[in-house]
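Narrative of accomplishments. A recurring question from our advisory board has been how the design workflow behaves on a single, concrete structure rather than in aggregate. To address it, we present the structure tokens for one chain from the evaluation set, followed by the sequence designed for it. No filtering or post-editing was applied between the two.
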């Protein structure tokens, strides 16, 4: 069942699940999965983290991902989002979606894809070519 929040954005009662999150991350090119840091679902590209599923604030899944400076400024004050614990306090532009009911699946998919892209662009051109990302 979906609800509407201000701005006509649909939200679900339950929010995004770890299975849905993992499906999105798995669909991105050259990704690897590892469970680490106390059972978090960690996704990497070229050995670099681009998404973390875990570190719950509420009693529901939480998702942490890298964002552009502009997205960081916009998302940090949106309902259900916050600067990522540990990462943002060190000056890194990472956001945590701690309440998946506030974010439709396609919007989270977009942020995860963008995070993958940002991390990919931090890899050397040669390594991107080796991974088939060029």
């Amino acid at each position: 069942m979906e609800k509407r929040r201000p701005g006509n954005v649909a939200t679900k009662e339950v929010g995004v699940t770890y299975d849905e999150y993992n499906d999105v991350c798995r669909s991105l090119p050259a990704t690897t999965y590892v469970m680490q840091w106390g059972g978090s679902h960690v996704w990497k590209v070229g050995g670099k983290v681009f998404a973390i599923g875990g570190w719950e604030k509420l009693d529901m899944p939480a998702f942490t991902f890298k964002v552009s400076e502009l997205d960081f400024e916009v998302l940090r004050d949106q309902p259900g989002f916050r600067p990522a614990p540990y990462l943002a306090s060190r000056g890194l532009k990472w956001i945590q979606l701690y309440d998946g009911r506030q974010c439709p699946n396609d919007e989270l998919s977009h942020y995860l894809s963008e995070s993958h892209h940002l991390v990919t662009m931090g890899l050397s051109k040669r390594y991107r070519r080796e991974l088939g990302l060029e």
